[in-house]
Structures are given as C-alpha cells and as structure tokens.
Design a protein that fits this description.
Length: 238
C-alpha cells in the first residue's frame, strides 16, 4: 500500500498550525516526538553496555538534509524559519514512521535513520533486502512530500521560498559503542556508510544510493527505477 500523501499533508498542517499558535502566544513548544532522540540504535541499550565496548551490525542508513538552510534562514528571519522547520521535520518524520525507520539523530535540518539490524531481524524478520527497500522507498517519498506537502504549505502560508532537499542511502556495517562518562553518556554509531550517506545527501532534490543498495534492490523487467552511475561510485535514482 502506497503512502497516503494527503494524510501526511493533513498531519503536517495540523502540527504547523499548533506551532504557529505557540509562536503567537509565546508558550513553551510541544515536541513532535513523545521521547527524546537518544539511545535509540536498534538492539543496543546504553545501560547494558560498558564504556569503550563496541559491536558491529549492518544497517541501511538514510540521511536527508535541507539545502542552503543557513541563507534561507537569514532571508526569511527567525519566526518563519521556526515555522518552516515544524513543517519540514514533521512531514519527513511522518514518512519515516510509515516505513518503520528508526530515527537515530535530528541534526538541525538533517535527519539520520536506520533500518535493519539484529533487532529488526528478530522482531520483524526484516532481511537486508527489505531494510534497503524501506530506506529507498522512504527517500523517494520524502522527495514527493517535499513537493506536495512541505512546499505547498510553505507557499500557502507565505513562509518564504520553497526548500530543496537531498537524500543519501547506503547499506553496510557500523560500529556501535558507548561513549561518555558516568551520568552523561549515549550509544553512538560510526562507520564509512554513515559518512557516505551524509555526503550523498548534498544533492538537490534527488536521491543517491551506494552500489550495495543498488545491488540489493530487486530488479524487474518492467521496473520504473533507473540507477544512473555517478563519478564517485554512487548511483542517482530516477
């Protein structure tokens, strides 16, 4: 079943209107999620790990990032930037939720999401091909939502110029470790595939994937996707 773009639009607009009301009334903001984004790497619990210990696990990794966000913020000012971010992040997180992604971090206007790992295999029988497909479909629908939800609301509410985003998707092993000191620590993931996904997200309104993602994507005779090789070994999806 395809993602319901109209439902994403409805939920995003409701969240925007809530944020606008708080801005008008100068009240404390309500967070979009029910809990903080921390200690959320699937299958790893900070309280059960030792400092300096590490493990390796395979994940499909998605990075999505807004392009030219600093200049846009300077152009439209703090109030419209605040409202834009509530539209932008809410809409993209609705897409992540639909595809059962695990939000690992929200970094300003960037989002990092994981699929797969031992927990997903144990609970949902999610094999690596399914993890890759969910990540790729999530990225493609983020691009649709950018046009049909985010920029529509931005235009209708006069929040400034339309936004552009880039999406990068990879699949490989990451190192998960517990970092910090007593009373202040977290579980963090490191790996080349994370860095590559972040680099791939620097495109404008396109999704770029690694060779492993392309190879794991199921092919069909009448498939609608095209993978166009880029000079750095990645593939732009059209």
């Amino acid at each position: 079943m395809a993602i319901d773009i109209d439902l994403v639009y409805k939920k995003t607009l409701e969240h925007y209107q809530q944020a606008r009301q708080h801005l008008i009334e100068k009240r404390a903001l309500l967070e979009h999620s029910e809990s903080a984004i921390s200690n959320v790497i699937p299958g790893f619990d900070a309280d059960k790990l030792e400092f300096g210990s590490y493990d390796k696990e395979n994940f499909a990794v998605l990075f999505v990032d807004m392009r030219n966000s600093t200049k846009r913020a300077q152009d439209v000012g703090p109030a419209k930037t605040f409202l834009t971010m509530h539209v932008y992040l809410t809409a993209l997180l609705e897409v992540v939720k639909y595809y059962n992604g695990k939000v690992i971090d929200i970094m300003g206007d960037g989002i990092m999401v994981f699929w797969g790992g031992r927990e997903a295999r144990a609970e949902d029988n999610m094999v690596k091909t399914e993890a890759v497909q969910n990540a790729g479909r999530c990225g493609r629908n983020m691009l649709k939502v950018r046009n049909k939800v985010i920029n529509k609301i931005i235009k209708d509410e006069d929040l400034g110029n339309e936004i552009s985003i880039g999406v990068g998707v990879t699949f490989d092993s990451v190192v998960v470790t517990k970092i910090g000191i007593l009373g202040s620590y977290d579980v963090k993931a490191f790996g080349d595939c994370i860095n590559v996904a972040s680099k791939y997200s620097k495109l404008y309104n396109k999704m770029k994937v690694s060779k492993k993602v392309k190879d794991l994507w199921p092919s069909s005779k009448n498939g609608k996707l095209r993978f166009i090789a880029d000079k750095d070994g990645g593939y732009i999806v059209e």
